[in-house]
Every structure is written in structure tokens, then in C-alpha cells.
């Protein structure tokens, strides 16, 4: 199962994702965190 939560900043997507991942025993992937981490990487 894949769930995607969309909405404007500050609406609680991360909170709901954490709740649902615990409830449904699923892995939570925060794409915004991955994106920001990659922005900080220096080019090779």
C-alpha cells in the first residue's frame, strides 16, 4: 500500500503520516527531508 499526503505547509501532513505509519505498521518516507538533504550535498 502506498499513501501520499498532500497539502500546504503547516497543515499536519507529517503528524498524520507519523500517526498512520504507526497505526498501519508502514514505513514513513518524508520526501521533503530527502530533498533538503540532497540540496546540502556538494557536487562531486
Description:
GO terms for molecular function: AMP kinase activity; ATP binding. Belongs to the adenylate kinase family. It is an enzyme of class 2 (transferase). This is Adenylate kinase. The chain is an all-alpha fold and 44 residues long. It is built from two helices and no strands. The longest helix has 12 residues, at 13-24. The protein is extended and about 40 Å long.
What class, by secondary structure content? mainly alpha
**Weakly predicted, low-confidence segments:** none
Oligomer: single chain
Distance between the termini: 36 Å
The total beta strand count reads 0
Using only CA atoms, what is the Rg?
13 Å
**H/I helix tally:** 2
Secondary-structure element string: HH
Question: Roughly what percent helix?
Answer: 40-55%
Instruction: Outline the biggest β-sheet.
Output: none
Beta strand %:
under 5%
Shape: extended
Mean pLDDT: 91
Family: Belongs to the adenylate kinase family.
GO molecular function, one term: AMP kinase activity
Keywords: ATP-binding, Kinase, Nucleotide biosynthesis, Nucleotide-binding, Transferase
Subunit structure: Monomer.
Amino acid at each position: 500500500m502506498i499513501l501520499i499526503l498532500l497539502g500546504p505547509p503547516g497543515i499536519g501532513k507529517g503528524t498524520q503520516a507519523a500517526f498512520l505509519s504507526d497505526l498501519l505498521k508502514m514505513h514513513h518516507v518524508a520526501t521533503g527531508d530527502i530533498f533538503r538533504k540532497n540540496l546540502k550535498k556538494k557536487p562531486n
